[in-house]
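User: I'm curious whether this sequence folds into something compact or stays loose and floppy. Could you predict its structure so I can see for myself?
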Amino acid sequence: MISFEAPWLPAAAAAALFGLGAVACKPLTAVVDPTLLAGLLYLGAGGGLALVLAARGRASAGLALERRDAPWLAGAVLAGGVAAPVLLLMGLQRGTASSASLLLNLEAPFTALLAWSVFGERASPRLAAGIALTAGGAAWLSWPGHGAASGGDWRGGALLAAACLAWGLDNNLSQRVSAKDPVTVSAVKGLVAGAVNTALALALGARLPGAGPLAAAAAVGFLSYGVSLALFMLSLRRIGSARTSLYFAVAPFFGALAGLVLLRETPTLTLGGAAVLMAAGSLLGREPAG
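Assistant: Here's the prediction. I'll summarize afterward.
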């Protein structure tokens, strides 16, 4: 799809698109049911990437999917495509986009911990220290009583943490199919996850929004979850789950800044302190493992 010389560039580009997506989704959560919105976002992602595949023809940036990839891909779809976006949007409903965006830094600790403890990736002291700082910033931001994460409702922070855990599992499962064409994998994930959440929401009584929110959801989905996911898959192939998650940890800073500037949210001391800790953790964790 897109060729990047430096191995970290796909992760950085994916981070920018994903981080801005949380801010773009915030107004939509007021008019669209969270489960339905999650479905529409991923249908936009999968449908847009399917058009890219059709236009691209036979060209490929990786191997073709095989039957043995099905369990890994199915797990990634359920965790990262079905569960995580619904949890994210439910958490986003309860607070500001800027603080919710910063809390998405928890994806990096969860990804790395799962990579080390379950999937056998090698850790380094610097990477572990970076993860600890990132987790510390998230804990400060979401601590009950601060009110920064969720407008005084700690459940918003808990929902966002659960979304990050689901994405951490998704990242590690996706690593197992990262040699495959990232556009194909991302299109499959988007279409399947989008169809599941949309069907579930409609079955539970949700109503489709008007043409404006529908088009906005599709566009945000294509860029922030489709193109971003394809670039993320490319990065998983190049540098692994744990390190990709640390580069990707800049995504929440894009979202936090955009929330303050575009949505005119109020900056707080808690928000600033958490951002400093998370930024330090992200920078420290980028040191190549020994």
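Summary: The chain has a mean pLDDT of 81. The chain has one domain: 9-56+66-285.
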